[in-house]
Amino acid sequence: MSFAELIARVRGEEGTSVNLGILHQDSSEPVEIAVMRAEIDVPSVYSEMIGEIAYIAIDQFSEDTDEEFSRILKGVIDNGADGIVLDLRNNLGGMLQTLLNVTSCFYSEGNILTVKENDETIKKYDANRQSVTTDLPLVVLVNGYSASASEALAGALQDHDRALIAGTTTYGKGSVNVMFELPSGGGLYLTTARWYTPDGNLIEGIGITPDFQTDLQGDELVQWAVDYLNDNIS
């Protein structure tokens, strides 16, 4: 059963129950557990202090991510962090306005993203002043599953020399797609625009190339970033 199929079977009206068959480790027979359905709010931002360096991971750019990030960033500043490791690995993107708000926490003026439509129309999205901002030294972690909004954030910080980007080249998803319904009942996704970084670099099909390319993964890359910041903070 796929994850989508599982969700379709479990999802239901809030306040109703669903019976789940759970097979515990080392057990031969499943047990049935009744679970009450409710709205689940899954945080998209996680943080912890590693010595004097703040580690912040953003899983996606959802509707509330910018507010979550702002609260966490304020806590990081209040705790007297010396630098920030921002982890965007496996972040597949999300909402454009959330991306703009999060990026604006790191610089208050200048371009973040340029969108070029297929009719040659160009729209520039610039930083907008946020209530919580920081100029702390910054390392951003990316990988091949960093896509869309996470690539735009990494590219903007890279072009503005605001952060060191570390990891592997990102996915390369920087396009706007619109679905058109067909008379047959099917649909057609049409790419109508491309995303460009502040320096005019195309994201679609290319991705963001890290300043420091490495095969380090997981906690090893986090530790490298922490060590880098500790070694380069004056």
Brief digest:
24% of the residues lie in helices and 29% in strands. With 234 residues, it is of the alpha/beta class.
| Global morphology | globular
**How many β-strand stretches?**
12
CATH superfamily of the largest domain: 2-enoyl-CoA Hydratase, Chain A, domain 1
Strand content: 25-35%
In the CATH hierarchy, what is the class of the largest domain? Alpha Beta
Please tell me the total number of domains. 2
Largest sheet: 6 strands, mixed
What is the count of DSSP helices, taking H or I runs of 4+ residues? Answer: 5
Give the overall pLDDT as a whole number.
Answer: 94
First CA to last CA: what distance?
53 Å
Structure characterization notes:
It is built from five helices and twelve strands. The protein has helices spanning 3-10, 65-78, 96-103, 149-159, 218-232; strands at 17-22, 31-36, 45-50, 53-58, 83-87, 111-117, 122-126, 138-142, 164-167, 175-181, 187-196, 212-213. The longest helix is centred in the C-terminal third of the chain and has 15 residues, at 218-232. The chain has a six-stranded mixed β-sheet with strand order 3-4-5-8-9-12, with helices on both faces. Strands 7-6-11-10 form a four-stranded antiparallel β-sheet. The chain has a two-stranded antiparallel ribbon with strand order 1-2. The chain folds into two domains: 3-36, no CATH class; 45-232, Alpha-Beta Complex (2-enoyl-CoA Hydratase, Chain A, domain 1). With 234 residues, the chain is an alpha/beta fold. The mean pLDDT is 94. The N and C termini lie far apart (53 Å).
